[in-house]
Specification:
- It is a single chain.
- The protein is of the alpha+beta class.
- Helix content is 41%, strand content 28%.
- It contains three helices and five strands; from the N terminus they run E-H-H-E-E-E-E-H.
- The chain has a five-stranded mixed beta sheet.
- Strand 4 and strand 5 form a beta hairpin.
- Helix 1 crosses helix 2.
């Protein structure tokens, strides 16, 4: 499996890393839903190479990891899986604003890190 890395803004923030850290802290305090969500996310990350139902292409190089209600957008870059955004599924289709946000971050990553 490719190494998984987080997208960071120019200010050094990572939405996905922050969300996973918060889930982990909540799970450590005994929150079973947070623990189940983390288990589901980590399992989907391990299975990302197998495609559906754990991962699917959104458009072009953008994909989403599907872990129960959580979705994490990502793209592949120089042998890495770059995690861009995280959100809770609320509709059948991935909302266009989420795809747009992921695309913007992907372009920012490539511009700053090189193609």
């Amino acid at each position: 499996m490719a190494e998984v890395i987080f997208y960071y803004t120019e200010k050094g923030n990572s939405e996905v890393e922050k969300a996973l850290t918060e889930l982990n802290e909540s799970a450590k305090r005994g929150n079973r839903q947070a623990a189940a969500a983390l288990d589901s996310i980590y399992y989907a990350l391990e299975m990302v190479e197998s495609g559906m139902p754990h991962s699917r292409q959104l458009e072009g190089p953008l994909y989403e990891i599907r872990a129960k209600r959580h979705r994490i957008t990502y793209f592949r870059w120089e042998g890495y899986i770059v995690l861009l955004t995280i959100f809770l599924k609320s509709t059948q289709q991935t909302p266009k604003p989420e795809i747009d946000r992921a695309r913007k971050r992907m372009k920012d990553w490539v511009a700053r890190e090189g193609s």
